[in-house]
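User: structure tokens for this one?
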Amino acid sequence: MLRVLKLTSVQCVVMVVVWCSAMTLNGCASLKTPKLSLPEKKVDASPSSIAQLGTALPAMKPGDDRELCLIAADQMSEAGHWDDAVELYLKAESLAPKKPKLDAKLAPAFAGAGKYAESTSRYRRLLETAPNDAELRNNFAWTLMESGDVVRAEEEFRTAMRLSPHESRAAVNLGVLLARQKRYDEALAILTSSIGEPAAHHNIGVVAIEAGDEATAVRAFEKAVSLPGAPKASVEFLASLKSNEAMSQSLR
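Assistant:
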């Protein structure tokens, strides 16, 4: 089970992940949301079922099936039930083919469902009308990274950083991308300028563990804990790694 903590500073937010049975790195709102288990039953978009989800329904008229689908889809999306959200958004689109496409809703929903080709297609169409939207480019870049297109993802993260130099999310995500490629020095420079040196070393340590690079992880956490303002989680990670190393040596 993952427990995610937020550390805030004057100009940035970094999410620090505590090591439990599994590990990942989540950076701000743009990072991929862990999937929740999907409901076993088919989603019911009837008014009574939607009301049970906790949202008061607006007054509906006959033929408002599209609005019902959108309400249900939004709630499925908020809960992380991405496959159901996609199905409902597509249903809503089909019920009103002359209305604008639901790209802004379907792009992240497709990404959450792991359907990256469909997601990137929707993001590209959004960017045609908003090419200078840094947050949109950041989310597009994250989807490209998750799909495995790391070259294009890096380009898009850097574009987002140029469009919004004071926004840290694209820089944090670029740092994750570089660290995943074991370009640790580059990642450290990017992350340090965005979230500070202690958190930068910590995040590199987390990514290194994901990659099975425990030696780099140990060095990163050791550096993090040696600095003022080190995340408490860095101490926990380092202790766990040292404990595992000691146990491995005792079994030899």
